[in-house]
Amino acid sequence: MNAKIELENQYLLLTPGPLSTSRGVRSAMQRDWCTWDQEYNQLVQDIRQRLVALATTQVDVYTAVLMQGSGSFSVEAVLGTCVPENGKILIINNGAYGARMVQMAKRLKLNVVELAYAETEVPNLDEIATTLSDASITHVACVHCETTTGMLNPIQEIGALVKAQGKVWIVDAMSSFGGVPLDIADWNIDFLISSANKCIQGVPGFGFVLAKREQLEKCQGQARSVSLDLYDQWFTMEQQQGKWRFTSPTHVVHAFHHALLELEQEGGIAARYQRYLTSQNTLAKDMQALGFKCVIEQNKYQSPIITTFLYPEDDFSFEAFYYHLKSTGFVIYPGKISDLACFRIGNIGEVYLDDIERLLQAIARYRTNV
Ligand SMILES: *Cc1c(COP(=O)(O)O)cnc(C)c1O
């Protein structure tokens, strides 16, 4: 199967999305699809139901909304729709995606307070608890897997603090949903955001929000934007049973539906998580043996999604390394930490342990030749 990918694609994407997809997902895009009848709407409804069922056993309490654009559009739709004019949002930020939420909240002119941490730091639960005693804070947002570093933030623990204070809880689970087991009801999440091209392994083109129905229903008329009005998007999809308000990314939607079927065939999120975990563990262990240090220790905070490695020596040329690997069929990812010389390797997508082993062999050969 992997040799086939190489024939069709010149390289394997070891990035956190867009990522290498299966042939089945790609072939679902090889024709044009109409949107004006039942067939398409039913496909959309099936996607929405499947997403809710992946997220929780309490399927009646939650609902799914699909939103055009990349994942950030869905994050902005949530922030801009959920926080009322007299509300105030606390954003816990320890990376580029937390910072992006702060930037969005400010641009939307929301009342925002930020708890900022270094990119390599785990958010401090005591500090969060203290900050949450501010009664004017109505909403709290945090990233689950901070793709900047690969750190898995303690969302469950933070969520318990947020709920103890009765605030609305928003989680950017863009790069973890579908790859890390969780139950949004058990974790008290009100709005969870993810997108088509991460752990569900579809192609880019839309994001989705899993929302607690009773919370979303309160958001009518609050949005600061027409196209990013999460409530209106949901209302139309719900009332008209699978209809998108504006042009939908039909090819991407069909590919996504196929990706959901493949996730089910693989054995669901638990099985996918095991695949990712095995790949990540092997990657981290063998890279360390080759002289690369991991930025996040191999503990519960290291996600099974993406790993950040320090440059092995001061004069290490990432560019030479990158282009060499690309010529052997692997695309890795530059670092994103402000003050550390590092790079990242993702292992989500149509990527298996033998791909990681081939990558490690290519890296070992490169290291002995330079
Ligand atoms: C990928 C990602 C996003 C969204 O990025 P887009 O480029 O807009 O798709 C947001 N948050 C996290 C944590 C991500 O990994």
From TrEMBL:
GO terms for molecular function: 2-aminoethylphosphonate-pyruvate transaminase activity. Signal peptide: none annotated. Its cofactor is pyridoxal 5'-phosphate. GO terms for biological process: organic phosphonate catabolic process. The keyword DNA-binding does not apply. Its EC number is 2.6.1.37. InterPro entries: Aminotrans_V_dom, NH2EtPonate_pyrv_transaminase, PyrdxlP-dep_Trfase, PyrdxlP-dep_Trfase_major, PyrdxlP-dep_Trfase_small, SP_NH2Trfase/AEP_transaminase. Keywords: Aminotransferase, Pyridoxal phosphate, Pyruvate, Transferase. Pfam families: Aminotran_5. It catalyses: (2-aminoethyl)phosphonate + pyruvate = phosphonoacetaldehyde + L-alanine. The keyword Heme does not apply. Substrate binds at R344. Residues 28-309 form the Aminotransferase class V domain. The modification N6-(pyridoxal phosphate)lysine is found at K198. Belongs to the class-V pyridoxal-phosphate-dependent aminotransferase family. PhnW subfamily. HAMAP family: PhnW_aminotrans_5 (MF_01376). Involved in phosphonate degradation. Homodimer. This is 2-aminoethylphosphonate--pyruvate transaminase. The lineage of its organism: Bacteria, Pseudomonadati, Pseudomonadota, Gammaproteobacteria, Moraxellales. The gene is phnW.
